[in-house]
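Anyone up for a design puzzle?
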């Protein structure tokens, strides 16, 4: 059979609340047009994020029952550690309550004077954590990654010439090199094995550690299987193991490719760095065998890591994301191509050319998707990245709206509903109004800023 189906069935269901357009207009005003401020039971299809929104399996729920809540030395920790090492055999596996906690710990134990950390594209929390440690966060994604229309199999690749140049000119200032797989802020685009291998070779040449921001390692691995020569016959797990064999450490949000609702870890081979990390962990997260998580959470991760490298799951996962993206493409809605692993990114700047970047076309589109269809998506553009460290405001490289697909949660008819809603929106898109920010906090403004529509 050609049809790729959801490789699971439902055993326990959660009702969705249907709302009307006029109700949603009130909810929007109450939320100051910030979709993060909506009550989630007023959202019909929630594509805000794929983070922590996965449906857990029967085996994961069974794992929850086995959780051992001992303060120190819990068997849950050892099951978690074994499952991580099966894929990513780093010497030290340090659990944290989520990915950003791992980031915060990692960057706070590095020297920070005049330092710079390169990445293909830093995710927003990664950038914010680096900058809050007074380190510069530098994006060096290849130029193909910044062209939303260009079809290229590995638009997440880091620009190796730029990285070499940085290491040659400011090598002493680089405490470590990062690669984000898949490249979330750059459209969920994968990084090739060749690029990971070459980045590692450069790091070795200059004596630098390579850390992977590996939140979507399994999706990245499956793209490698589908697109990179020499990997078609490999199991996803083998590809994952090869990816991690090139790294010296990783930060991880288990809320993504570990199929759980909360969790993360920091891993590394370096003993000295690990000791420093565990010292901070004890201050901010907890004892090293639970690090901000319950024993049951660690067991759910351990099972999730077995399920995430299942070929049937990964094949369905990438096919179902592409299903939504290809349908929008057929409607003439400009999307980031090719479709990434966890989300479809609409190019709002191109879709709404009557709105300038500082009129926040991405926010305008996200607001209208909710108003019209109760669908919640996330602006990744000038609202998220426009405010500069010096206080000025500039257009972000792109104005995208991300439709992130929670793992194992929505069916194809839910996606068909989203497609219908976007078709209707697209036929009235010229009427979308410009947006202005009426209040914003000093950092990570997209989470809490207030907006209004310019009438
Ligand atoms: C989600 C994410 C993070 C941060 O993880 P949290 O669990 O949300 O704190 C870091 N990097 C990338 C690429 C992510 O997608």
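Challenge accepted. My sequence:
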């Amino acid at each position: 059979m050609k049809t790729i189906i959801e490789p699971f069935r439902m055993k326990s269901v959660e009702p969705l609340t249907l709302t009307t357009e006029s109700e949603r207009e009130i909810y929007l005003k109450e939320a100051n047009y910030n979709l993060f401020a909506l009550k989630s039971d007023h959202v019909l299809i929630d594509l805000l994020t794929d983070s922590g929104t996965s449906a857990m399996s029967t085996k994961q729920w069974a794992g929850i029952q086995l959780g051992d809540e001992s303060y120190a030395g819990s068997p849950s920790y050892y099951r978690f550690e074994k499952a991580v090492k099966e894929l990513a055999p780093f010497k030290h596996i340090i659990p944290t309550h989520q990915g950003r906690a791992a980031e915060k710990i990692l960057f706070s134990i590095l020297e920070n004077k005049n330092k710079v950390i390169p990445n293909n594209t830093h995710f927003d929390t990664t950038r914010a954590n680096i900058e809050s440690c007074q380190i510069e966060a530098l994006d060096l994604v290849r130029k193909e990654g910044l062209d939303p229309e260009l079809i290229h199999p590995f638009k997440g690749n880091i620009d190796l010439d730029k990285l070499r140049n940085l290491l040659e000119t400011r090598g002493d200032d680089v405490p470590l090199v990062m690669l984000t797989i898949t490249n979330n802020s750059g459209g969920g685009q994968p990084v090739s094995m060749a690029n990971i291998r070459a980045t590692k070779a450069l790091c070795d040449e200059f004596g630098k550690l390579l850390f992977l921001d590996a939140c979507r390692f399994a999706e990245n691995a499956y793209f490698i299987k589908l697109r990179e020569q020499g990997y078609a016959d490999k199991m996803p797990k083998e590809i994952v193991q090869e990816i991690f064999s090139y790294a010296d450490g990783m930060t991880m949000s288990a809320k993504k490719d570990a199929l759980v609702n909360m969790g993360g870890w920091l891993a590394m081979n370096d003993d000295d760095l690990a000791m420093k990390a565990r010292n901070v962990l004890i201050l901010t997260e907890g004892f090293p065998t639970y690090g901000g998580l319950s024993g049951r959470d660690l067991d759910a991760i351990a099972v999730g890591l077995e399920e995430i490298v299942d070929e049937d799951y990964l094949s369905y996962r990438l096919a179902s994301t592409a299903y939504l993206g290809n349908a929008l493409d057929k409607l003439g809605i400009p999307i980031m191509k090719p479709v990434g692993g966890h989300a479809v990114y609409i190019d709002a700047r191109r879709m709404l050319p009557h709105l300038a970047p500082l009129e926040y076309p991405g926010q305008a589109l996200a607001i209208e998707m909710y108003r019209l269809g109760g669908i919640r998506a996330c602006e990744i553009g000038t609202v998220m990245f426009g405010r500069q460290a010096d206080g000025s405001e500039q257009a972000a490289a792109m104005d995208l709206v991300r439709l992130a697909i929670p793992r194992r949660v929505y069916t194809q008819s839910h996606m068909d509903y989203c497609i219908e809603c976007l078709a209707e929106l697209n036929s009235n898109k010229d009427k979308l109004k410009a947006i202005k920010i009426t209040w914003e906090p000093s950092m990570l403004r997209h989470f809490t800023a207030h907006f209004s529509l310019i009438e």
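A detail worth pointing out: The chain has 16 helices and 14 strands.
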